Amino acid sequence: MAKCDSCGNEYDKTFEIRYEGKTSTFDSFECAIHLLAPECPECGAKVIGHGVEGNGEIFCCANCAKRAGVTTLKDRA
């Protein structure tokens, strides 16, 4: 059995994700999100949807981007 790189659980149904040249093993999507999803620099939320990008950073929403000084972004209506 393989071991999850996020929580350490040994599980017979793990899966691998290749990201930025590294392969990681997980036992759930929750663990993959915990380890790989970017974090909004303004509020700390994990960005698991589209998010918005400005000034080289990924934010969870345009409101957080605006609070961080990126005023050109808008959420989808």
Rg, Å, rounded: 16 Å
With strands numbered from the N-terminus, the spatial order across the biggest sheet is 1-2
The quaternary organization reads as single chain
End-to-end CA span: 45 Å
The dominant shape is elongated
Tell me what you see in this structure.
With 77 residues, the protein is an alpha+beta fold. It has two domains: 1-36, no CATH class; 37-77, no CATH class. The chain is 18% helix and 26% strand. It has helices at residues 29-36, 62-67; strands spanning 2-3, 10-11, 15-19, 22-26, 52-54, 57-59. A two-stranded antiparallel sheet has the order 1-2. Strands 3-4 form a two-stranded antiparallel sheet. β1 and β2 form a beta hairpin. The chain starts with a strand and ends in a 10-residue tail after the last helix.
Key terms:
77 residues; alpha+beta; two-stranded antiparallel ribbon; elongated
Structure at a glance:
The protein is α+β, with helices and mostly antiparallel strands and about 80 residues long. The chain has two helices and six strands. A hairpin with a 2-residue loop joins β5 and β6.
Task: Summarize the SSE layout with pairings.
Blueprint: E1 2-3, E2 10-11, E3 15-19, E4 22-26, H1 29-36, E5 52-54, E6 57-59, H2 62-67
Antiparallel strand pairs: 1-2, 3-4, 5-6
